[in-house]
Amino acid sequence: MGLGRHILMQRDAIRQIGVLAGLILAGALGAIVLALPIPLLTGPAIATTLGSLAGLRLNFPTGLRQTVFLAAGLAIGTTVTQDSISALARWPIAFAILAVAIVLLVILGARLMQILMRVDKRTALLAATPGHLSYVIALGEDMNMATSKIAVVQSIRLLALTLLVPFAARLSGIETGIGFEGGQRGIQNMSIPITLLCLAGALALTPLIAKLRIPAPPLLAGMIVGAGTQLTLGGGSLSHWIAWPALAAIGGLIGTRFAGIRPQDLRQSAMAGLAGTALAGCLTLAAAWLAKGIVDMPLLHVLVAFAPGGLETMTVMGSAIGANPGFVAAAHVGRLLLLSALIPFLVGRTEQPLPVQR
């Protein structure tokens, strides 16, 4: 009986992965046909979101997710150049501007969420947190909060930013191409031996980064190894046969965040999620405008670095539009580290809410 049940569970898991892969492929091809910006990211994100909301059970295994992020990190890391490194001296002031914007966003966003969602201060605070979804949900579960509402608001923000930034790039006259095109034009692909060496190095570095409790270890490990290889050996860019499927998989992962969300939770929290995204967009745009002259980068590049989207997604997005990958990654890591310290402090200063009914 136990063996039979195990086999059935394995078959069900394989079926879910098959459905997910089909949606990702269909979304990518459809977006290419429709000429959407960054089709390998936006197409799968739309397709899997619709599938999740339609009730499909979409499973994205942890091991596959880590592999995808590692490959994406390598692809992004190979876009790093000496010019990217030279901007380091100008970044501290820009990061200070970002920190102020994050604090304002959390405080104002929490008040907005409390009004729109009619929830206690702690739930509103976690719903307004600009990113760090897994950390926020863990805090909410530990304090017995209505985490389903928090997850909806956070997922809407991530999806909205994923879809809006590519279209903003197109309206700004930036050609994004089909995938990791922004920083890879004119660069030859890595040889197979160098690719295997980079993969092995990134795999070895990932657990070391994880021990430091830095967000997204596989992605950052891939970026570090890819950048180091490019700057020292000039190994070239990661093959599109690896980079493009990884990009499409990340798009598909975004949509799976809506899996299992009840329709009533979606209806109740959708307006709050869109309003929170609008507030985040306004504050981020203002911060990016102040910082763009300091870092000497286009406004859209700084906006992607400051946008409160997922670290992995926004870093990939920055690569697609040709933004400085080191600056984008550093800004998002800094944002998550600041939130890791700021949110528990603010939560601890609010009154204890009544237990929610699940």
Automatic annotation (TrEMBL):
Taxonomic superkingdom: Bacteria
Keywords: Membrane, Transmembrane, Transmembrane helix
Gene Ontology CC entries for this record: membrane
GO process terms (BP): regulation of gene expression
Name of one Pfam family that matches: AbrB
Membrane spanning residue stretches: 12-35, 91-110, 150-169, 190-210, 241-259, 271-291, 327-348
Protein name: AbrB family transcriptional regulator
